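To the structural biology subgroup,

Please find below the input and predicted structure for Cell division protein FtsX, which we are adding to the shared reference set this quarter. The sequence is reproduced verbatim from the submission form. If anyone notices a discrepancy with their own records, reply to this email rather than editing the shared folder directly, so we keep one authoritative version.
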Amino acid sequence: MRVEYLIRETGTNLWRNVWLTVAAVLTVFVCLALFGVSILVGKGADSLTSQWKGGIEFIIFMKPAATPDEDTAIRKVLDESGSEVKSYKYLDQAAAYEEFKKLFADKQELIDSISQNVLPPSYRVVPVDNDADAIAQLGKQFEDKPGVYEVRYASETLRNLESLTNLVRIGLLAAALILLAVAVLLILNTTFTAMMSRRREIEVMKLVGATNWFIRIPYMLEGLVHGLVGAAGAAGVLVGVNKWLFPKVQRINLFEYFRVTSGEVWSTSLMLLAIGCLVGVIGSTFAVWRYLDV
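Predicted structure (tokenized):
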């Protein structure tokens, strides 16, 4: 089977049903764009709340130059607060630097300008009581301790924000799945319509000995084009969102640590291209195999 034949036949099918083609491509584009954005929002939300995972309610940041005795004194108070402190985790400067590099993975200049010696070690504390007043009272006793730079609390706003981003992700994902089903049906219908409009040609091809696969492949490629073009457009949206929208979001103080790396954008884009191709092939293959006896 010649490549020129496949290109010509696929192009003919696309052009004969141009409006159905446009509708199918746009549907794939919208559903995959929503799906991709929901993934990036999730990754950004994870970076935004990464310091507060596992029930951490406040963080004791030590001064970079804190002495071993000052550090031991803080650890002793935490150990002796067993009725109030459920658990705690210590991050030394090396661990803090690794976390910093992960958080700002797409900003190599910033990483190169910071050494681990300037980053504060910290204690991340999970209290027994999640009541805001109890947490404030527990954290307050560390604020004036020697060697302590700052005690930072997980605000109620941050917790609400985490819940909100989860709802947004679920909403976008649900809409994307619904539209994905619509896209498969549209591609199926477009392929079916193309085959119906050329039914006599198909019958003649069968009479002269054309194999089923010789007839099927151009129509399956038509579905592949629908999915691939729509997915490519959705990938472009992800690049644009990360380049122009997310930086504006990060200027809001509450979203300062909302980060999506360029690597995450490209990996998500590649996933969308794969899904788009799969959706196109599934829709067109189902039409070819089930709707016409070829």
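Summary notes: The mean pLDDT is 82. DSSP finds ten helices and four strands in the chain.

Regards,
Lab coordination
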